[in-house]
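2024-03-11 09:14:02 INFO worker-7 job=invfold-0412 stage=load source=structure_tokens
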């Protein structure tokens, strides 16, 4: 069987993580590389940051770690790798280089919603959850005290996210096959999870 790479992309709050969890629950032997978890465990909780400029530098550093981890998993021939993040088109070439080098089939799952306010409400609910890492929310984070301080991050403001939603910034990337999914109901999620499962099992 050909090894598979599943890329789940879409704006923050579109429902990517929910879909990824449902796929994980139904499939076996999936390697999941979560950029958010990586940021939390490697950057926020180890060195933190004192201002938004320092946080932006950590955002850039995470890409070096991400590509190294993805290449390592492909080099050891993990059968199914899933990554979930708001990916922009600028990473398309890097993905294509790796799948060609290591002979992976790829599927891009573009997650959207017809209503931006529904996305915003999901995002606000997630960000207010006690389980949400404060490093995603504030312009300063102290890893020793585990306290976030300062203003809300500029990139998370309503007007900026709405413009990105309208421009489909995170839904334009295409690596391998592509499925576009509008996150509306639990039933529609079942359909997309089933399609992803069929791709994973395809010979």
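2024-03-11 09:14:09 INFO worker-7 stage=emit residues=203
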């Amino acid at each position: 069987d050909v090894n598979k790479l599943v890329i789940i992309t879409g704006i923050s709050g579109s429902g990517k993580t929910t879909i990824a969890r449902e796929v994980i629950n139904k499939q076996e032997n999936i390697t999941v590389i979560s950029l958010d978890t990586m940021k939390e465990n490697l950057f926020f909780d180890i060195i933190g940051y004192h201002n938004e400029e320092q946080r932006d530098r950590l955002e850039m550093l995470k890409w070096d770690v991400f590509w190294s981890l993805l290449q390592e998993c492909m080099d050891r021939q993990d059968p199914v790798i899933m990554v979930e993040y708001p990916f922009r088109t600028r990473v398309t070439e890097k993905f294509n280089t790796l799948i060609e080098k290591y002979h992976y089939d790829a599927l891009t799952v573009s997650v959207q919603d017809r209503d931006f306010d529904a996305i915003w409400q999901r995002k606000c609910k997630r960000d207010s959850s006690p389980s949400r890492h404060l490093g995603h929310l504030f312009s300063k984070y102290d890893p020793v005290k585990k306290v976030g301080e300062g203003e809300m991050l500029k990139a998370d403001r309503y007007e900026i996210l709405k413009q990105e939603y309208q421009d489909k910034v995170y839904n334009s990337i295409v690596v391998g096959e592509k499925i576009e999914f509008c996150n509306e109901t639990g039933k529609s999620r079942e359909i997309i999870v089933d399609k992803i499962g069929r791709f994973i099992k395809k010979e």
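2024-03-11 09:14:09 INFO worker-7 stage=report msg="The beta strands are 3-9, 30-34, 80-84, 104-112, 138-142, 147-152, 177-182."
2024-03-11 09:14:10 INFO worker-7 job finished
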